[in-house]
Design goal:
Helix content is 37%, strand content 21%. It contains seven helices and eight strands. The strands form two sheets. Strands 2-1-6-7-8 form a five-stranded parallel sheet, with helices on both faces. Helix 1 packs across helix 2 and helix 2 packs parallel to helix 7. The C terminus is likely disordered.
Length: 219
């Protein structure tokens, strides 16, 4: 199936998560940037608070869409040894790419969050939302970052994903909610009619809107 856009995809995804509606222990975390418009619709439908978790993919040089790993807020770094070995990537290259992406992660953290800390996730049901899963590297890093905060449960929620990626991540979380797992998959953007790049300003506006103009992080 084709999703009209991220907003429509989020509305459909929310239906898969109806069991979590109106629960005081649920927090929705969008992965910027493309995951935030989807997460906004999910949080609105579930009547749950919206927050973000900044994650950056570590792309193979000259093949940036191929993830050799990812980093996430909280100093998390995961590496895909299979990709690294198959492409013969040196430790020096990994370190250089990681430094570049850490700078961008810090820039986004400051831009979206300022000095406000991440919401306390201890004992909460955390729903991690992105606009799709290809290799799953970014989402894997996100689950590692969230698990460090001892949540009650972690749910991965995406409109579309590669079937094998879902299978790989199943053991890492309590539930995976996905509207569609087409085969062959190819890429996330292929399954959207409109898939423009989400801007920093769009992320900021959605976070403010979700909080009704009030401070986003109150505990």
């Amino acid at each position: 199936m084709l999703f009209k856009d991220r907003r429509f995809a989020g509305q459909l995804l929310a239906k898969e998560l109806a069991a979590y509606a109106n629960r005081s222990d649920v927090v929705v975390l969008g992965l910027p940037r493309g995951g935030v418009p989807v997460a906004f619709e999910v949080a609105k439908a579930l009547n749950a608070p919206l927050d973000i978790l900044v994650v950056r993919k570590l792309g193979v040089p000259d093949q940036e869409e191929l993830a050799m790993g990812a980093i996430a807020s909280g100093g998390v770094r995961i590496l895909n040894k299979h990709i690294i070995n198959s492409v013969n990537i040196s430790d020096e290259v990994i370190a250089r790419v990681a430094v570049q992406e850490e700078r961008e992660l810090e820039r986004r953290e400051q831009l979206y969050r300022g000095e406000r800390p991440l919401r306390d996730l201890r004992g909460r049901v955390v729903i991690l939302v992105d606009d799709g899963l290809a290799t799953g590297a970014s989402m894997w890093a996100a689950t590692v970052a969230v698990r460090k905060q001892q949540p009650a449960a972690i749910v991965i929620a995406v409109p579309v994903a590669a079937r094998e990626t879902c299978q790989q991540l199943e053991s890492e979380v309590d539930q995976i909610a996905c509207v569609s797992t087409p085969n062959p998959f190819y890429s996330v953007g292929l399954w959207y009619e409109n898939f423009p790049q989400t801007t920093d300003e769009e992320v900021r506006e959605l976070l403010i809107k979700a909080a009704n103009g009030q401070p986003l992080f109150t505990g």
